[in-house]
Each structure stands twice: as structure tokens, then as C-alpha cells.
Amino acid sequence: MARITASVYTSHVPAIGAALDLGKDHEPYWQRLFSGYEFSKQWMRDHTPDVIFLVYNDHATAFSLEFIPTFALGTAAEFAVADEGWGPRPVPRVIGHPELASHIAQSVIQSDFDLTIVNRMDVDHGLTVPLSLMFGQPEAWPCPVIPFAVNVVQYPVPSGRRCFELGKALRRAIETYDRPLDIQIWGTGGMSHQLQGARAGLINRDWDNRFLDRLISDPAALAEVPHIEYVREAGSEGIELVMWLIARGAMDDIAGGKAPNVAHRFYHVPASNTAVGHLILENR
User: Strand (E) positions, 125-273?
Assistant: First the structure.
């Protein structure tokens, strides 16, 4: 049977992608940030999965205010890189896994989660920046990726509890797939940041690091944190962090297994006007 071997968590700041694409990653401003992913790139070479289930949020590219799915599962065989206004990033197309994605849709919907099935979807920096951080700049991504877009842009957005419970349903779905696949679940977005208004530029190091602590050691309690705390403490865009709870809810310990191994943890400020958090958890 398929199994989840690890979860990966990272911010997906668009300026990170631009820095990589323009060859600025060794400049003093960016070098400290990218150095925090050197371990991760080697870890990925040593632990390349068969499939990545990547949780991210669309930034008004595949979807708009005319159509806002809360949870959108990409079931296509491949996904084009979106043009976000300055041309698509010069990164490979994303190859999907329709068979596994369809199985997940069947199982998760039967577990009473309403998913939007998307057979055609361009993917933006929310998905491609994490891939670049973990894989560098290859000619092709080394494994298929199933995109899973969550609405954290237009209220109402799903609660942390809902996301955490969805992670549990994803784990059950994956473990009933009848091929021996090694699967990783990635949660992306965050950490603290606000892009507009009187608090534009807000970064809360203490809250971010407490979030990482709780994500590791007490995710069930973290899932109960209300939206207003994310907005108050981590800024209007800090709500993206509920997506990390989907990946965390899929780990073995949530279903009674052993606590995960913390393979890597990294936190850095600033990247543009955003705090960057990163974590790799391995099932034992």
C-alpha cells in the first residue's frame, strides 16, 4: 500500500522565486535565506518520493472572485506554470498523478469533505517556489506532484480544525491506495506577514516560532487556534498557516503512531516583507 513518509513545510514568498530566476541567490541579502535550504535539497536527493501532495493557495491565477473553491484537488496529468503578470516562471511544467488524485478524491469525498475536482489548472508561485527551494533548478521535477489549492485569500476560509481533520482523511485515503508508493505531503504559505494596510510589513518572530513548536509537539491544540489570533498576531496573510495543519494532520502520530523525527528546522527574516519558516518531519 501507499504510505506517507514525511511532511515538508515552507513559506512560498514570490520574491524567492524571482531571486532564484534572476540568479540573485548568492547576493548577501538572499544568501542567508537560501543557505537554510541547503540541508533540505540534500535531504530531498536522499528521500525523493514517488509523489508529492502539495498544499498551497492560489493567488488569483487559476481562480478569481468569480469562483472560489475552499479545497481544490488537481487531477490532471500535467499543470502549466501560471503567468502572474510578468510571464511564467522559467521552471518545469508540473507532472501530476491522475490515478492517485482520483483515488484521494473518491476517499476524501466519501469521508464527507467536499472537494472541487480540477482537471485543468495553471499553478503559480504558491506551488513552484516550494519546489524550487527543495529541488533547486532541475530540467524536470524529479517526481509527480498533486496540487491541492486551499482558499485562504477570500473569507470565509477553512478553520485550522477543518484543515487538521482533512489531513487525517488524506492519510486514510493514501493508505488505501493499492500501489506501494512513497508519498510526501507538503504544507506551504506563511509565516507572519501582512501586505497592506496600517500594519503592512508586520512580522512576529516570537509567534512564528511558537507556531513551529506547537506544530511539532501539540498540533491538535494548535488546530484549535481561531482565525482572529492568526490575523492579530501574524498579520492578514498569516492565515495561510492553516494549510500547514493539513500536512501535519496526515502524519503517523496523529493516528496513534510514534512522534515524528524533526529532520530540519529553519526560520529567517526577512525575505521581501515576509518571515520564512521551514520544517521537515519524518515518520518513524
Answer: 145-150, 182-188, 261-271
Over its length of 284 residues, how does the chain's per-residue pLDDT go in tens digits?
999 999 999 999 999 999 999 999 999 999 999 999 999 999 999 999 999 999 999 999 999 989 999 999 999 999 999 999 999 999 999 999 999 999 999 999 999 999 999 999 999 999 999 999 999 999 999 999 999 999 999 999 999 999 999 999 999 999 999 999 999 999 999 999 999 999 999 999 999 999 999 999 999 999 999 999 999 999 999 999 999 999 999 999 999 999 999 999 999 998 998 999 999 999 99
Full-prediction pTM beyond 0.90?
yes
Q: Which domain holds residue 219?
A: 3-282
CATH of the domain at 178: 3.40.830.10
Nearest to 57, CA basis, from 166, 201, 154, 170: 154
Q: Which of 97, 125, 268, 278 is catalytic?
A: 125
Catalytic one among 193, 227, 264, 268? 193
- The rounded distance, in Å, linking the Cα atoms of 73 and 210 is 30
193 is an active site residue: yes
- Paired residues of 277 in beta bridges: 267
Number of domains present in the structure of the chain: 1
